[in-house]
Design goal:
About 35% of the residues lie in helices and about 20% in strands. It is an alpha+beta fold. It has a single domain, classed as endopeptidase domain like (from Nostoc punctiforme) (endopeptidase fold (from Nostoc punctiforme)). Helix 3 crosses helix 7 and helix 5 crosses helix 6. The two termini are about 30 Å apart.
């Protein structure tokens, strides 16, 4: 009898829990811990668990992540989450999601199209020639909504003291590290007071 009650309680709990797809909105921002070769350096330099991110869009009933990898593209959500460490991810959205009207979402997509197919920016330069993950999301939001999600920093403001970070910097820049280059990090966007957490898995 106790076993039956436990099974019923679990069934009711599972039935009451909303499916992930039902919790998401177009324009939500998703973060995870990348397993790429540079992820550890990003995590150490920004003192954050999260090293990769993108924007969620729904097309024909399916969820995709618009992301800057190689190249910038739409990736099915299931594939994107599998790439993260342990499948863990966090979804955030604007405190006031009403700001993302259909017209604004259309502008976001139009703004993002200029980057589709562009190469990933290994050097984290603040230009549109190549682009990295947080830069893609930041620029789309800035151009479509006028909002700056996360504070821009200079490269020198990050913690560059760890040996793993130093090694990655030498690989990318040699002895000419562009310490004055503006950078937007996944950590800065994750911590933005403009966002509220929706779900994490």
């Amino acid at each position: 009898m106790k076993r039956l009650a436990a099974i019923l309680a679990l069934t009711l709990t599972c039935a009451a829990a909303p499916r992930l797809e039902e919790q998401l909105h177009d324009g939500d921002i998703i973060f995870h811990e990348s397993r790429s070769s540079q992820s550890l350096a990003i995590q150490l330099a920004t003192q954050s668990r999260y090293s990769h991110m993108g924007i969620l869009y729904r097309d024909n009933g399916r969820w995709f992540v618009y992301e800057a990898v190689q190249p910038v593209k739409l990736t099915p959500l299931a594939d994107w989450t599998r790439r993260g460490k342990d499948g863990h991810f966090v979804v955030k959205r604007l405190h006031d999601p009403r700001a993302l009207t259909p017209a604004v979402l259309a502008r976001m997509r139009t703004s993002g199209e200029r980057y589709r197919g562009k190469s990933y920016d290994l050097y984290f330069e603040w230009s549109d020639d190549r682009i990295y993950c947080s830069e893609l999301v930041w620029k789309i939001y800035k151009r479509a909504t006028g909002l700056e999600i996360g504070k821009l920093q200079k490269l020198r403001e990050f913690d560059l003291s760890n040996d793993a970070v130093k090694k990655k910097m030498r690989e990318r820049y040699g002895n000419r590290i562009p310490t004055n280059e503006p950078v937007i990090s996944p950590a800065a966007m994750f911590d933005s007071k403009l966002l509220v957490e929706v779900t994490r898995r």
